[in-house]
Each structure stands twice: as C-alpha cells, then as structure tokens.
Amino acid sequence: MAPTPLDLIPAAIDRFGARVRAVPADRWDAPTPCTEWTVRDLVNHMVSEHLWAPHILAGETLEQVGARYDGDVVGDDPAGAWARAAELSRAAWLGTDLAGSARFSFGEAPLTVYADQMLVDLTVHGWDLARGAGLDESLDPDGVAHSLAYARANVDRFSGLGIVAPPVPTTSTDPAVQLLSLLGRTV
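RE: above sequence
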C-alpha cells in the first residue's frame, strides 16, 4: 500500500529542515526557481505555512489566526525559525486524523487536500531551496510520486489561481522532472 501524505509529511519536514540548516551563509539572498523569492524569502514562506498548520489542523478559522504570520517571520535566524515552526507543525500533523475540513483562502476543503498541498510544497520547495542554495537537489521518490499524482489532477486549477508558473514542457520520464516541470520549474 502506498504511503499517505500523513505518512510522508514528518520526513518531508525533516528533509526540508536539513536543507535549511545546510544553506551557506552567503546564499540566503540567492535567487530561487520561485522567481520572486530569494532563499530567505522561500524559507520565510515555508515557516509561515508551518506556523499556520497547527491552527488549521486544530480547526481554527483564518479569521481567528488573523495576520500574525504575515510578513517576515524568520528575522535574523531563518534556520532557527524553521526549526521552531517545524516542531509545531510535525506535532500537529502527527496528532491529526484528517477526518474534517477547514476553510482556506481558496474555500472549504477536506484536511486530506491540505495534507496533499503541504506535501507538494515541502517536496517542490525543497528542490527550490536546494537549487537556490547550491545543495543536493535529489527528492524523496515517495514524496515525488504522491505529489506528481496530486499535481497532475490539479494543474489546471493551480494555473487558474496563479499560484504556480505555467507548466514547462518536458520529454523526461523521470517523475521528479515531470513534477517540477508540471509546476513551472525548468530542470
């Protein structure tokens, strides 16, 4: 039986964290494949997402959480900020059963969809981080397989929301390259 996002998220959090800790001091301002984000900006985005996760998984609304995680949430210590957010996020994911739903900026959705999206973000942004920081770009095959299936099923919706760049054509049979290309990355 294939692992679920809930099975894969804790290890994906750890892999992303290992890359954050490995960012060389002179690469925090380097560009990433996310054209509007530097390495630091990308980590800031992921820290914010993982600070939100415990609230969403606990059933809080967007209004209840408010704007507390907007803007700069990493300060002078992006790696430390990631470590703190990751610890809270991991605990929340391990403590949930994904039976419910939550209200997101795009509307009401099952928590299973949120788990899919979180795994895609950890996987693809892990590659973005590695590319921007000059680190090993290899990806977890299980995370790629699940993320690719989710992305294939939702790429048209993603494009309509403007949250990813348009797909980049590829003839590669490598699932990681297919995933990254589908989500607008040139590999």
